């Protein structure tokens, strides 16, 4: 059976390619073998011939200057058909397989040929180690034995060459990996450094904000105290003075509120906000909260309340939630002329505080930005405000695991809702 049919020519070519030997430069190790083979067999020519798809290529050629010939004329291509044996042709000129072969009829005038197949560990015959003479001849048994031994040496060299190439490839990959790791390491170091810098900067900012708020609060308190003292000493102050005092008081109030908002923002930024929820009756909480609004803030209006559902205890941080609800009610008073309504509803798994007014409402395009810091709706810019209250309220509500939202109609009014989860009842 022809060799190609036995193992598969495609696999044999692939095996040969895996050695990466074709078209490499001459090497001493291989040249020494062909020199030795020629010497042992007493022949002028010895070749290490590798049979590629369309050619035979000589890794070493002793006594010959050409480096390759077409595969169809290669005697070696015949030799690899019987991988376990030496192919010996005593006189190629009389062998009908080679009639008209230009390598026989012309240069290099092959007459005698003996080739031992180069078989790799998987049984693929990659080529041959052969000896050639220009006259008929015959190898002795010992010469054949030595030619076979030298053929095995060629395969050992080929395997070595391939292992070295693989090792070199692995080494290069390792080197690249190492470089990549170094680059990544440097990047992580820089990132770490930046994070430390950012943390330091953020701490500096928090300290600065706390310091500035404190420094402003002291003079504001003394201005307020002075206003109180003037009021106390002037039993019946003239109207312009009362008016000025009221203006001063209003401005001091606004500035104090702004300072406390900025202070809270600093705490949120630094992640230093204390959250301390305790079970609490939300109805009582709302009533207490409404009671804190002064007559001046109400401006003759009433905050209406209504409750719905089964009363239950809710875990609330009263300080934080007061801020959020007071902000909603203050806005309802600020952005509307009517009476705001605070509606409390208990549901099985949550509680909702809804604050409704019939004021200026909010343009639809502004609603998505309402709970971000310093945002002010386009229709409210002539009314004093900072755009911080809703942003802070949202942070506080989210700390409770709840959410805040709004439904509003421009020029008709708004309803802001704070929805908080209740603690599930404990099973006995
Ligand atoms: P401030 O009221 O100090 O500007 P807020 O964060 O509390 O800050 O509110 C942000 C913006 O949302 C306000 O500037 C206003 O444009 C709009 N807004 C809030 N509440 C109402 C409301 N009840 N009616 C109409 N607009 C409102």
UniProtKB/TrEMBL annotation:
Residues 211-424 form the Histidine kinase domain. Its EC number is 2.7.13.3. It is an enzyme of class 2 (transferase). It catalyses: ATP + protein L-histidine = ADP + protein N-phospho-L-histidine. Keywords: Kinase, Phosphoprotein, Transferase, Two-component regulatory system. The keyword Mitochondrion does not apply. Pfam families: GAF, HATPase_c, HisKA. PANTHER family: SENSOR HISTIDINE KINASE RCSC, TWO-COMPONENT HISTIDINE KINASE. This is histidine kinase. The lineage of its organism: Bacteria, Pseudomonadati, Bacteroidota, Cytophagia, Cytophagales.
